[in-house]
Specification:
Elements: E1 6-9, E2 12-15, E3 25-26, E4 29-38, E5 41-48, E6 55-57, H1 58-62, E7 85-86, E8 89-99, E9 105-113, E10 118-122, H2 123-127, E11 139-143, E12 146-150, E13 156-159, H3 164-168, E14 172-175, E15 178-181, E16 188-190, E17 198-200
Antiparallel strand pairs: 1-2, 3-4, 4-5, 5-6, 7-8, 8-9, 9-10, 11-12, 12-13, 14-15, 16-17
Length: 201
């Protein structure tokens, strides 16, 4: 083993033992042995919890190194969520990135909602669950001799053609089992008829 040398710490000098950190743990790293001394630096063979055995100089170990680098965030592949579904949203296409107000690149995607609407939103909003639909996915579809109104959250109710203009003039949601508007509280009520239509109350 090489003789002890003087290592400068700040503006002072202190004699060190190069083996004093051997066997110690620093984060995910365990120092196994002092292997090389070059350019006035001690280099140690370490064992990372991930299995790698990096060679790291003493200064890095004592002042911040906690792994071989395996815990460093890796660049995200913007294509990795294309084709995947988030709630009612299907990611159709990665369209590029744009810098946000803090100067960071933010990825944007063309999305298709279950209601058929297409819209563009950011990866961040998708990943954090802030976007679950297009936000405007009310829809009216015809089914045989009646119509179905699909609410923004995916709930639905059926109605007759005679009420088409009234239904189209409001946005509806289901409350306590009844479709109601957000504006005036009108609601549909199920009849006792055989086909279980909704009628106005």
């Amino acid at each position: 083993m090489q003789e002890n040398i003087e290592e400068r710490i700040g503006d002072e000098y202190s004699r060190i033992d190069p083996d004093d950190i051997v066997g110690k743990r620093f984060g995910k790293l365990v120092v196994e042995k002092m292997e090389v001394y070059k350019n006035h630096k001690y280099y140690y063979r370490c064992k990372c919890d991930c299995g790698k055995e990096p060679l790291i100089h003493r200064g890095r170990i004592l002042f911040g190194a906690t792994s071989c680098g395996c815990d460093t965030p890796r660049p995200v592949d913007p294509q990795d969520i294309v084709g995947k579904r988030f709630h009612k949203v299907l990611i159709a296409e990665y369209i590029g990135y744009q810098k946000n107000s803090s100067g960071r690149n933010r990825s944007y995607y063309r999305c298709i909602c279950d209601c058929g609407n297409e819209f563009i939103t950011s990866r961040t909003r998708l990943m954090y669950g802030e976007v679950k639909s297009c936000g405007d996915c009310t829809k009216i579809v015809q089914e045989e001799d009646h119509y179905k109104y699909i609410c923004q959250n995916g709930d639905s109710f059926i109605f007759d053609e005679i009420d088409m203009e009234l239904v189209k003039s409001h946005r509806w949601y289901i409350s306590n089992g009844y479709p109601v508007t957000r504006s005036n509280g009108d609601r549909y009520k199920k009849t006792d008829s055989h086909d279980a239509r909704y009628t106005w109350q």
